[in-house]
Write a structure and sequence with these properties.
Rossmann fold; alpha/beta; 14 strands; about 15% strand; binds adenosine-5'-diphosphate; binds magnesium ion; 7-stranded parallel β-sheet
Length: about 400
């Protein structure tokens, strides 16, 4: 199947050609025809499958018809600012040969400039829930003419506590509209949302929670106090062109970044404490290849489209098995090979069992040759037995929760 086979208009096809897309991905093949008929869509697919284009193309085509009202005809909600910007960029590229106007609306930037832009009139708003709600309450945006609503990364919205905000936004939208909801996973609260927001949706489901088999996954068992050393050694020894390193906390992200810089590696870092400008410039540095390594917390990195990553490093094991799949899905996107390394301390083992349960198989365990694993921990670094026990209990209860979610 080719993009020309969809009933898209020439300005859109031209933009697709200019983006260099050869042919539609699986999600696009399944989603685009139904969405062009105005049908609701419920899409579950792993990251990197091309969902953005899948919902943008049919919507853009729809908006090319008819007279443009001043109020937005389409709203896309995304969980993070970076993701909103990324979707808006993709929308701008795809609509560049049309008159359609795209605006990203997110926090951390001047509300006044944004309000002015809104009042000037836009066709498509890509927004994070908090800022859009803010603008709605100020009376700067009306959904009177809204026809299409897209909720992207719904499960992430749930994690971040955005569901009440989204509900408030959707309540002000016309009943009669097209809704498309995308989520990598389907926890119960998202299932409820789909009943509430979608009417007879087409279900598009592609390999949920199974990472691309092209990813070479390895576990490195390591004592906690040697993680930094191990990371440095691995990055030095292996042919790492571009790595995304995930840490659990902001503090850890900062420490790892500092250590790698001390080794003269080119590192960018991105986490929630940085204001918008800094996050964007870090991301840009990494995207352009000016930084070989990007250190990120989970929240900051989810959903970002960063391509050409050769390595994903789970410096910390993700707290939820499904996040593991999300993270490693960053490499080997659309037919590129990738490597995923996960550092595992003894107390992480319950989390690893959870991940392996989800994957339905064991992950290879490896040790780095000639690495001194026996360096004793400095006394301050040793957690008490009580702390250890608490951590294990915490991860165990998380596993129970998702086991109950994934049980068929
Ligand atoms: P998802 O939302 O499913 O995680 P994205 O929509 O972010 O994935 O797409 C991932 C990457 O693939 C983006 O860089 C996008 O431009 C690219 N892409 C999308 N569709 C195609 C296609 N048909 N051919 C090649 N690349 C594509
Ligand atoms: Mg996406």
């Amino acid at each position: 199947m080719q993009f020309q086979d969809f009933d898209l208009s020439e300005p859109l096809l031209r933009a697709v050609r200019e983006k260099g897309f050869q042919k539609p991905t699986q999600v696009q093949e399944q989603t685009i025809p139904a969405a062009m008929e105005g049908r609701d869509v419920l899409g579950t697919a792993q990251t990197g499958t091309g969902k953005t284009v899948a919902f943008l193309l049919p919507s853009l085509k729809h908006m090319l018809k008819g007279k443009a009202p001043k109020n937005p005809r389409m709203v896309v909600l995304a969980p993070t600012r970076e993701l909103a910007v990324q979707i808006a960029e993709e929308a701008e590229e795809l609509s560049k040969h049309t008159h359609l106007r795209v605006l990203a609306v997110y926090g951390g930037t001047s509300i006044r400039t944004q309000s002015n832009d809104l009042r000037r009139g836009v066709d498509l708003i890509v927004a994070t829930p908090g800022r859009l709600l803010d603008q709605m309450r100020r009376g700067n945006v009306s959904f009177k003419d809204l026809e299409i609503f897209v909720l992207d990364e719904a499960d992430r919205m749930l994690d971040m506590g955005f569901i009440p905000d989204i509900d408030e936004i959707v309540q002000r939208m016309p009943e009669k509209r097209q809704t498309m909801l995308f989520s990598a996973t389907m926890p119960q609260p998202i299932v409820s949302l789909t009943y509430k927001y979608l009417k007879n949706p087409l279900r598009v489901e592609i390999d949920t929670a199974v990472p691309p088999s092209a990813i070479n996954q390895q576990i490195f068992p390591v004592p906690k106090h040697l993680k930094e050393e191990l990371l440095i050694e691995l990055l030095k020894r292996e042919n790492v062109e571009s790595a995304l390193v995930f840490t659990r906390t902001k503090a850890e992200a900062d420490v790892v970044t500092r250590k790698l810089r001390e080794e003269s590696m080119s590192v960018a870092v991105i986490h929630g404490d940085f204001h918008q400008k800094k996050r964007m410039s870090s991301l840009e540095r990494f995207r352009k290849g000016n930084a070989r390594i990007l250190v990120a917390t989970n929240v900051a990195a989810r959903g970002l489209d960063i391509s050409d990553i050769t390595h994903v490093v789970n410096y910390d094991v993700p707290d939820e098995a499904e996040n593991y799949v999300h993270r490693i899905g960053r490499t080997a996107r659309l037919d590129k090979d990738g490597v995923a390394w996960t550092f595992v301390t003894p107390e992480d083992e319950p989390l690893i069992s959870g991940i392996e349960y989800l994957l339905g198989r064991e992950i290879e365990r490896v040790t780095l040759p000639d690495f001194d694993y026996d360096v004793p921990a400095p006394s301050w670094a040793k957690p008490s037995a009580k702390t250890l026990l608490k951590r294990v209990e915490r991860s165990q209860s998380k596993i129970d929760v998702w086991k109950s979610l994934t049980r068929k």
